[in-house]
Amino acid sequence: MKLETVLVDTAMRRAGLCTWIPEGEGKWSLPLQFLPDGSGWVELMRLKPGTRLGLHRHTGEVHALTLAGQRRLNDGRIVRAGDYIFEPAGNVDWWEAIGHEDLLVHVVVKGSVEYLGAHHSVLQRITAADRVADYHQHCAVIGVKPNKLA
């Protein structure tokens, strides 16, 4: 059994879920931990090849370990399974899943994620409270009680 399969199965059990949380076309998440005082979250993120995360800024640092698949960063770098990326607070970028298999990334997000429009205006802000609410809503939809992930 592949390591990423073991990690996903373990994360599903920990979260009490049987399905990924859909976040839009070609993108899903699986929460691992919500950090104290709403300071951030830890999750597995899965994207279908061709799915792009638009221009965004992080208000806190981000640590991302690619477990499977590949992604192309806006600076042209290709990130593959086993590659680790650190993004400092204030980092602005976009990236896309590429290749032939789903991208699976273990990510630690401090602060919030701000999706940006023209002149870097904030179109959408995602906070830890939003991620908790998404988890609780998904649990309600599939009929399970949320686990304590704090």
Automatic annotation (TrEMBL):
InterPro entries (UniProt xref): ChrR-like_cupin_dom (IPR025979), RmlC-like_jellyroll (IPR014710), RmlC_Cupin_sf (IPR011051)
- Cross-referenced Pfam families, in alphabetical order? Cupin_7
Superkingdom is Bacteria
Domain ChrR-like cupin span(s) in chain numbering? 18-92
Signal peptide as annotated in the record: none
* UniProt protein name: ChrR-like cupin domain-containing protein
Q: Please give the organism.
A: Hydrogenophaga palleronii
Q: What is the lineage of its organism?
A: Bacteria, Pseudomonadati, Pseudomonadota, Betaproteobacteria, Burkholderiales
